[in-house]
Each structure stands twice: as structure tokens, then as C-alpha cells.
Amino acid sequence: MTSERPVTDAIAALAPPGHDVLAGWHARALELEPSATEGSSYGMPALRYRGRPLIAVAVTAAGYSVYPFSPAVIDDSAHLLGGLKRSKGAVAFTDAHPLPREAFDALVLARRAEIDASLDG
Looking at the predicted structure, is the pLDDT value of residue 118 above 50? Predict the structure, then answer.
């Protein structure tokens, strides 16, 4: 049976510091978009907005990655990411080189705007 709380369950299964990092970003994303719901996208637990993937944060072998499900959103937020490694689909960060809050906020808000534009436009 699939959980109706895949993000919450994934966070609960983690030990610190991963638990604390993901729980913090999850809470922040919900502050920015309270109507976001838990689901999955590309096989990973993710918050969804209006039926579309909004944001996911995951523990990786090298630290963490945030996935806004949009290369354009990553490109538009590049000036806030400093020297963090990024790819077409993700931004990588570590405990030693954390993701700036303003960068996370920009990723979530830009992705929300992108979803709204695609559904309302």
C-alpha cells in the first residue's frame, strides 16, 4: 500500500542531520505554499501544487539535492545559488555548504508561478 504521506514518511525515516535538513525545507515550502500536498514525482517524495510537482529535497550520497522540476527555475535562481553545484534538474548542497534560504524561496516561488502560468495562461 502506498503512503498518503510520502514526504513526511521519508523524513521520519531519516536520522539527523538529514532528518532535520529535510524537515526544515519541507516546513519552509509549506509556509510559502500552504496548499501544497504530498505526493511523488520522478519516483521521489515531493510536494505538489495544483496537481504538478512543486519541489523535492532528498538526501544523496554527496549530501542533499533540491529538485524544482524545472531547468528554467534553476537558471532563473542561479544568482542566488553561489557556488553550489547544479544540473539541469537539481541543485546540490551539503551541511558545510548549505542552500541559502533565499535561494530555496526563489525556487519554490518561481516554480509555483510557472505552474500557475501553465494552468491559467
Answer: yes
Question: What Rg do the C-alpha atoms of the chain give, in angstroms?
Answer: 13
d(CA 12, CA 54): 20
Domain boundaries, the chain: 6-113
- The least confident of 2-6, 63-67, 75-79, 93-97 is 2-6
Is 3.90.1150.200 the CATH number for 6-113?
A: yes
Model pLDDT for residues 45-56, shown as the tens digit of each residue: 999 999 999 999
The residue among 47, 119, 72, 61 whose CA lies nearest residue 94 is 61
Cell numbers standing for residue 20: 532535520
Residue 31 Cα to chain centre, angstroms: 13
The grid coordinates of residue 87 equal: 544540473
